[in-house]
Amino acid sequence: MTLQVHMKSSFLPEEISAIAELERVCNAAEQIEIKAGVESLPQRPTEGIWDILCYSEEKLIGYLCFYTFDGFVAEVISMVHPKHRRRGVFRAMLNTALAELRRCGIQQVLYVVPAPSQSGLGLMKHLGTEFHEAEYSMHWAREPQAFARNPHLHLSAAGPEDFEFLVRCASQAFEDPEEITRNMLHRTNTPDRTSYLALHEGTPVGMLRVQRIGTDHAAVFCFAVLPEQQGHGYGRQILTQCVELLRQEGRTQIELEVVTENERGLHLYTTSGFDILSAYRYYKKPL
């Protein structure tokens, strides 16, 4: 089988349709939800993100996307048509990706695998990766459970003067080096993303970020409370106030991405009105 591997920075409509169909086939084969981000392809940014297409006899049989938010770590998502697996398709795409990542100075690769995917788990074992963390994609589905609100806690859009707090808060909450966090915040400082401070009596205690998509869609991410401020019930109120803000804007499609070590940690989010859409496991390997 002859493979043609192409790295892409922009897409024709028929290419996007082919990727969407490949995603549908792969999801149906294993009853999973691959996080390929097909809906964002028409307006995909050109910096820090790459896409690779693999064809056989003019048919798309493989897709791989890799991207970096901080310039140090790259995330890799891929899918191969079920009828063309174990034929070197993934390896051909990965070799192309790794060569580009080395050229860009990336130090570590995170492979993103849908939690139920047995083929993905087997591939991670074959590659010799190490489990890193689990991420849950959730969506807002209902009003939150009632709770006592703190009248002194509110959200405020962050300004340039708040940047170092955002770095410190995210770095401490997610246990990442400040250099990596600072680079990530710089790279993702785009017009469609807004950072918010959670202020208690005027003192910042937490943060979250929102990406507004279209007129009715929003994604909430980088939700964090300073470690020394955790345990006071701030998290639920911060998240609830964020949802209320977005709903006032007419946004009804609200998604949330969270990282947690166990499902008990999801209680905060489910009681805030969110349901789990999908779960992903991240596996790491030095480059």
Automatic annotation (TrEMBL):
**Signal peptide per UniProt:** none
Cite a single Pfam family from the UniProt record. Acetyltransf_1
Protein name per the record: Ribosomal protein S18 acetylase RimI-like enzyme
What are this entry's molecular-function GO terms? acyltransferase activity, transferring groups other than amino-acyl groups
Q: Which Gene3D superfamilies match?
A: 3.40.630.30
Q: Which residue ranges does the record assign to the N-acetyltransferase domain?
A: 5-160, 153-287
What InterPro entries does the record point to? Answer: Acyl_CoA_acyltransferase, Bact_Acetyltransf, GNAT_dom
Keyword terms of this UniProt record:
Acyltransferase, Ribonucleoprotein, Ribosomal protein, Transferase
One GO term describing the cellular component: ribosome
